[in-house]
Structure formats: structure tokens, C-alpha cells
Amino acid sequence: MRLIPKNEKFFDHFEELGALIEKGGLLFLDMLNHYEHSEAKLPTLKEIEHDADRVTHIIYSKLHQSYITPLDREDIHALARKMDSILDLIEASAIRMHLYKVKNPTREIIELAVILNNAIGLVLKVVRGLRHKKDHPMVMEWLVEINTLENEGDYILRQAMARLFERETDPFDLIKLKEITELVEEAIDTCEDVSNIVEGIILKHG
What we know:
The protein has one domain (9-205): Up-down Bundle (Methane Monooxygenase Hydroxylase, Chain G, domain 1). It contains six helices and no strands. The protein has helices at 9-33, 42-65, 73-99, 107-129, 136-167, 171-205. α1 (9-33) runs antiparallel to α2 and α5 (136-167) packs antiparallel against α6. It starts with 8 loop residues before the first helix and ends with a helix.
């Protein structure tokens, strides 16, 4: 019996944050697939991002208030920060689509958004499985899947860059589309960053 119990609420907050990221990722993909109506959905995406910021700040606050934590403090902080960054990158991508007046998303941007949503779905599974050690073997398998998706994202990014420089005649459009494509791929990379943090936690705690 512990005199001072560990604050298990951290796992609840990680799961809540993961669900918000999933919600934002799905909305972003919907915006790309129905691009003519996408601008009207930007405020909803912004609300989701604000909710994620709120949960992240709760995690930071509890970190300062808790004497004993279920995971190492630096791991809790790093995991919350990286998870929140995924949604920040999603919002940044969506905002730039309209700020730069992009007429239509490229095929590769949509393909990357699909991969991103698959990776986010795994991130949510991973944070849900982090709570119980009995689930850690399955979590490790999901981490490998996230790495595979990140490699797929890298491949599509290279294809997208080659296609842009080959076919895009307007240098300003090229710069705009290049930046947005790289932002979406960076969000996938950040999912892998999350998986690396989780892998470190599991290996550290056995």
C-alpha cells in the first residue's frame, strides 16, 4: 500500500488528448475530400485544437502538483508535448490551404492525410494500452506499424516533391504546395516521435 498514491489521471488525460487528435485528423481529411466546403470547417478544427491545448495544460499542471507520478516526469511532459504537436501541425496545414488560396489539394496531400489518420489511430491505441503492462506487448506491435506508416509517408513526400518540381510552372504555387505537403508529412513524423517516447517508457518500466 502506498502512503501517497500515484496520480493515475495522467492516463485519462493522454487518452482524452489522443481522442481529440483523432477527431482533428478525421476532420482535416474530410476537409480535403470536400474541399469546396472546407473553409467553413476551420473554426471547428480550431476548437478541437484549443481543447487539445487545454488538456495538455492540465497534464502540465498535474505534473507540478503530483508528488508521485505513474511515469517519469520528463516522459509525461515529452509525451503530452509531442501529442499536442500533431494537432498543431494539422491545424497549420489546414489554415495554410486557405491562407495561400490553394485551389485544390494535390493527390499526395490527400494520400499523406490518409496515412496520418492511420498513424493517429495507432497513437490512440498506444496511449490506451500504456496504462496496463499486460497490454505492452501489443503496444510494441502498434509502434512498429507507426514506423511503417512513417516510412510510407517519406516515400509519398519524395514523390510529391518530384512531381511538384516537374509539373508546377508557377514558382509561388510550388512553394505553397511544398510547404503544406511537408507540414502534413511532419505530422506523421511526430506520430513516430510519440511512438519512440512510448517505446522508451515501456522499455524503462519493463
